[in-house]
Automatic annotation (TrEMBL), chain A:
Gene3D superfamilies: Glu-tRNAGln amidotransferase C subunit, N-terminal domain. Residues 60-83 have a biased composition (Basic and acidic residues). The gene is gatC. It holds the Pfam family GatC. This is Aspartyl/glutamyl-tRNA(Asn/Gln) amidotransferase subunit C. One of its GO terms (biological process) is glutaminyl-tRNAGln biosynthesis via transamidation. It comes from Marinoscillum furvescens DSM 4134. Its EC number is 6.3.5.-. Belongs to the GatC family.
UniProtKB/TrEMBL annotation, chain B:
Its EC number is 6.3.5.-. Pfam families: GatB_N, GatB_Yqey. The keyword DNA-binding does not apply. Gene3D superfamilies: 1.10.10.410, GatB domain, N-terminal subdomain. Belongs to the GatB/GatE family. GatB subfamily. PROSITE patterns: GATB (PS01234). It comes from Marinoscillum furvescens DSM 4134. InterPro entries: Asn/Gln-tRNA_amidoTrfase_suB/E, Asn/Gln-tRNA_Trfase_suB/E_cat, Asn/Gln_amidotransferase, Asn/Gln_tRNA_amidoTrase-B-like, GatB, GatB_C_1, GatB_Yqey_C_2, Gln-tRNA_amidoTrfase_suB_CS. It comes from the Bacteria. This is Aspartyl/glutamyl-tRNA(Asn/Gln) amidotransferase subunit B. The gene is gatB.
Length: 95, 488
C-alpha cells in the first residue's frame, strides 16, 4: 500500500506528533511496509463472518453500581506535570 | 426582523441531540462517585483519569437505565451490542478517546409524542439512543495562562437521544426537550437539571424553501442550557439563515454557540477541520447481550409515564387536556394528584385544589410537593367540607387550608369548628333571617319585583351581614330568590 506525504501528515496531526522533514521518507517506508503486511489479511474470505470485537468469548462482564476504588484527591493530582491544589493545569486551550 | 411573508417562504428543519446524565451512584466504566457539585478532582479513579493499563468495566445500572429510556420511547432494544472508541484529543478527555456506541446503539428508532403551542400534537421520530461516557470539564479563566481541568465528570454515564430531522418549529423543539426531561424524571434515571448540565441539548438547524426536496446545509448549535434558550437559539439561527439566503450568501456548515446575554450566535473556531474520529470497536469491554429475561425484568418494573398519566387524568378523572398537562408537568405533582384522587371522588375539585391553593403555597414557600405539610387525606377532607357546603370555598382556601398547613395534626372538620368557619346551610335557620331582611326593605323589594334583578346582591349582602358570613351562599341565594318571588 502506498502512502503519500499528505496522508503521513494527516496521521501525524491526528496523533499530535511532529515529524521532522528529514524523517518523512523513513516513516513513509515503515508505514507502507506495515500496511502491506496487514493487507495480507485481505486474501482471506471473511464473507458472513461477524467481526471479532473482543479476544475473549465472555459477554456481559458487568459491574454492580457500587462505589469503590476512588482515588484520594492528592494522589490523583500527584503525577500531573502541572497542577494546583484543586485542578490539573494544561496549556491554555481556546474553545 | 424578518417579515412573516419572507419566513413563510422557508421551512425549518431541526434535528436534536439530547444528552442526559444517568443518576447512577458510580460512573459508567469505573466505581468512583457520580455526583455533581463536589470539590474538583475528588470523584476520580485511575480509570476515569485514564491511567495506562487500566481496564473499564461496564456499570449494569447504566445499561438498565438506558433500556428504560428505550422502552419509554418505544425503541427497539438492540440484543447484541459492543462499544466503540471515538478518538480525539482534548485535555478533559484523558484517554484520548471517548467510549461510546457508534455501530450498535442500545436503542434504535422510537418516538416521543409532544404537544406544543397548547393544541398542536406531533410525534418526534428518534433515530437512536446510545450509551457513552461524559468528558471532564475545562475551565478557561480570563488572564490565566493555563486551562484548568476537573475530571469529576469524566466517565459519568450518558445517554444521547438523537432525533430524525423532523422538527419544524422552535416551539416543537422546546416541547420535545421538555417531554424528554419529563420522561427521564418519571423514569428516575436523570434529574433533568439543564442549568447544572445533567440534561444538555444540541440542535442541527437548517432551512429549505418550502417547495424544495433537498435539506439545506445544517448548522449545529451547541449546549443550550434551558428550554427557553433552545427555542430562542433556534429562532435566531433560522432567521440568520433566512437572511443569508435572501441576501444570496452561502450558509457554511459549522458549529455555533448562542450567547444568551447578547441574543447572538458566534461560530466556533473550526481548527479541528481535520477531525476524523476513527471509530473502532472498544477491545477492553466484552460485548453486551440484553437477554430476553433481562429485557422483561426491566419492562415489568417500568413506572407510568407522563403521557400515561395525562391520558388517565383525562379519561378517568375528566380533566381537560390543559389541566392534565399542568398537573403532570412534574412527576411528584402527578403522583400527588393521583393519590388525592384515591382519597376523594371529587376529581374536579381535586384538580382545582392542586393547581390553585396547593401550587400557590409551593410557589410561595419554595417547597416541593413531598414537603407539603398537609396529608392527602386531610386535603380530601377539606374538599368534602366544601362539597357538602359546610365551609365555603373561600373560607376553606383562605383560612382552613393555611391553618392545616401549620397544624397538620388537626382534622379538617375540627379545624373548621375551631376557626368558626362552619356555615349554615340549614334552610330552617336561614329562612327567618331572609324574612327579616325582606321586611326591612319594602321599597327595594318593590324595585326588585319590577325587574331590577341586580338588587339580589344587596339582599345577599344584608343576609351575610346579619349572619356574619356564615351561611352557605348557595342555599341562601336560592331561598332569597324564592322568598322574594312570593312577596306580594
Amino acid at each position: 500500500m502506498k502512502i503519500d506525504k499528505d496522508t503521513l501528515h494527516k496521521i501525524a496531526h491526528l496523533a499530535r506528533v511532529e515529524i521532522k522533514p528529514e524523517k518523512e521518507e523513513g516513516y513513509i517506508k515503515d508505514l507502507e511496509e506495515v500496511l502491506t503486511w496487514v493487507e495480507k489479511l485481505n486474501e482471506l474470505d471473511t464473507d458472513g463472518v461477524e467481526p471479532l470485537t473482543n479476544m475473549s468469548f465472555e459477554e456481559n462482564a458487568l459491574r454492580p453500581d457500587e462505589r469503590s476504588h476512588q482515588l484520594e484527591h492528592e494522589r490523583a493530582l500527584k503525577n500531573a506535570p502541572k497542577a494546583d491544589d484543586d485542578y490539573f493545569r494544561v496549556p491554555k486551550v481556546l474553545d | 426582523m424578518i417579515s412573516p411573508e419572507v419566513r413563510a417562504k422557508y421551512k425549518l428543519v431541526v434535528g436534536l441531540e439530547v444528552h442526559a446524565q444517568l443518576q447512577t451512584a458510580t460512573k459508567i466504566f469505573s466505581s468512583d462517585n457520580n455526583s455533581f457539585g463536589d470539590a474538583p478532582n475528588t470523584n476520580v479513579s485511575v480509570i476515569s483519569l485514564g491511567h495506562p493499563g487500566v481496564m473499564p468495566k461496564l456499570n449494569e445500572k447504566a445499561v438498565e437505565y438506558a433500556v428504560r429510556m428505550g422502552l419509554a420511547c418505544n425503541c427497539e432494544i438492540t440484543e447484541y451490542q459492543y462499544f466503540d472508541r471515538k478518538n480525539y484529543f482534548y485535555p478533559d478527555l484523558p484517554k484520548g478517546y471517548q467510549i461510546t456506541q457508534d455501530k450498535t446503539p442500545i436503542c434504535v428508532g422510537g418516538e416521543v409524542p409532544v404537544v406544543y403551542d397548547e393544541t398542536k400534537h406531533s410525534t418526534v421520530k428518534l433515530n437512536r439512543i446510545h450509551l457513552e461516557e461524559d468528558a471532564g470539564k475545562s475551565i478557561h479563566l480570563e488572564g490565566e495562562p493555563d486551562s484548568l481541568i476537573d475530571l469529576n465528570r469524566a466517565g459519568v454515564p450518558l445517554i444521547e437521544i438523537v432525533t430524525e430531522p423532523v422538527i419544524h418549529s422552535p416551539e416543537e423543539a422546546g416541547a420535545f426537550v421538555a417531554e424528554v426531561r419529563r420522561i427521564v424524571r418519571y423514569l428516575g434515571i436523570c434529574d433533568g437539571n439543564m442549568e447544572e448540565g445533567s440534561l444538555r441539548c444540541d440542535a442541527n438547524v437548517s432551512i429549505m424553501p418550502v417547495d424544495a426536496t433537498e435539506l439545506g446545509r445544517k448548522v449545529e448549535l451547541k449546549n443550550m442550557n434551558s428550554i427557553k434558550h433552545v427555542i430562542r437559539a433556534i429562532y435566531h439561527e433560522m432567521d440568520r439563515q433566512i437572511r443569508m439566503t435572501e441576501n444570496g450568501e452561502e450558509i457554511i456548515s459549522e458549529t455555533r454557540t448562542y450567547d444568551v446575554a447578547t441574543g447572538d450566535s458566534t461560530g466556533m473556531r473550526t481548527k479541528e477541520e481535520l477531525n476524523d474520529y476513527r471509530y473502532f470497536p472498544e477491545p477492553d469491554l466484552s460485548p453486551l447481550h440484553i437477554t430476553k429475561d433481562w429485557l422483561e425484568s426491566v419492562r415489568s418494573a417500568m413506572p407510568m409515564l407522563p403521557a400515561g398519566f395525562r391520558e388517565k387524568f383525562r379519561k378517568s378523572y375528566g380533566l381537560s387536556e390543559y389541566d392534565a398537562q399542568v398537573i403532570t408537568d412534574r412527576k411528584e405533582m402527578a403522583y400527588f394528584f393521583e393519590s388525592l384522587c384515591q382519597a376523594t371522588n371529587n376529581y374536579k375539585a381535586a384538580a382545582n385544589w392542586t393547581m390553585g391553593p396547593v401550587k400557590s403555597y409551593l410557589n410561595e414557600s419554595g417547597k416541593t410537593i413531598d414537603q407539603l405539610p398537609i396529608s392527602v387525606e386531610s386535603l380530601a377532607g377539606v374538599i368534602t367540607l366544601v362539597e357538602k357546603g359546610t365551609v365555603s370555598f373561600s373560607a376553606a382556601s383562605q383560612q382552613l387550608f393555611p391553618y392545616l398547613l401549620e397544624h397538620a395534626e388537626v382534622l379538617p372538620d375540627q379545624a373548621a369548628e375551631k376557626l368558626n368557619l362552619v356555615q349554615d346551610s340549614d334552610s330552617d335557620s336561614i329562612q327567618p333571617i331572609i324574612d327579616e331582611v325582606i321586611a326591612a326593605n319594602p321599597a327595594k323589594v318593590k324595585e326588585y319585583l319590577k325587574g331590577k334583578k341586580g338588587l339580589i346582591g344587596m339582599f345577599m349582602g344584608e343576609v351575610m351581614k346579619k349572619t356574619k358570613g356564615k351561611v352557605d351562599p348557595k342555599v341562601a341565594n336560592k331561598l332569597l330568590r324564592e322568598s322574594l318571588e312570593t312577596v306580594k
